[in-house]
Q: What sequence folds into this?
């Protein structure tokens, strides 16, 4: 039985991805900061294949406790979904650098640190998927703005690209995924696709990932996203 670890699994895309892998028969380790209030997560089935654990990726002690609870497991797939958008609507001359740092702490530092923490538990071969965003693409940026979110995802993409090279000898393949414009709290009700469509599409891209394509940046439909 294959095991997947999914961060930020209590709502939106993370919840849909968790449900998808449960339905596919995977053993799922789902994380969120407050499992006791993650009612939708607890209602997923089958519960005997679902382990829900607390995790704040920005907190070192939380990461250490999480990794300790996984000792003895072998991870076939890590999906780094946890992330934040940060503040919206700031003018260029009113950027909040404290908020910028907090966003980086989650989207870049927390995600990278957790990935490194879990490397000893990753199977050979195994895969790591990072939920990024087209907003982190410099080649696709034709509208400007969104400095905080864009830069956090662009930096994360750079880390994933380097990891895809450095972890190749360990049999670990990585990819960055743009989930699409999804109907979530972040995406809003006018978004183009629902969470199930996004989750199924991304799972397909993960399934098709090979060592030869490791380090790619694609959307949920498999379309390449420019760096």
A:
């Amino acid at each position: 039985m294959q095991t997947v670890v999914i961060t930020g699994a209590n709502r939106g895309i993370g919840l849909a991805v968790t449900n998808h892998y449960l339905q596919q028969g995977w053993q799922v380790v789902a994380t969120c900061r407050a499992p006791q209030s993650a009612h939708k997560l607890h209602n997923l089935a089958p519960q005997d294949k679902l382990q829900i654990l607390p995790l704040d990726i920005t907190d070192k002690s939380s990461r250490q406790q999480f990794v300790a609870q996984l000792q003895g497991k072998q991870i076939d797939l890590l999906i780094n979904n946890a992330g934040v958008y940060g503040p919206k609507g700031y003018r260029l001359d009113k950027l909040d650098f404290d908020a910028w740092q907090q966003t980086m702490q989650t989207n870049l530092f927390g995600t990278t640190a957790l990935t490194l923490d879990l490397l000893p538990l990753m199977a050979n071969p195994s895969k790591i998927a990072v939920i990024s965003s087209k907003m982190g693409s410099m080649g696709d940026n034709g509208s400007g703005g969104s400095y905080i979110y864009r830069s956090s995802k662009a930096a994360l993409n750079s880390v994933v690209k380097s990891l895809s090279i450095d972890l190749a000898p360990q049999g670990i393949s990585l990819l960055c995924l743009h989930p699409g414009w999804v109907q979530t709290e972040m995406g809003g009700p006018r978004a183009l696709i629902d969470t199930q469509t996004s989750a199924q599409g991304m799972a397909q891209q993960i399934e098709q990932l090979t060592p030869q394509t490791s380090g790619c940046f694609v959307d949920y439909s498999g379309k390449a996203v420019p760096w």
About this structure: The chain is about 35% helix and 20% strand. Residues 175 and 215 are 5 Å apart (CA to CA).
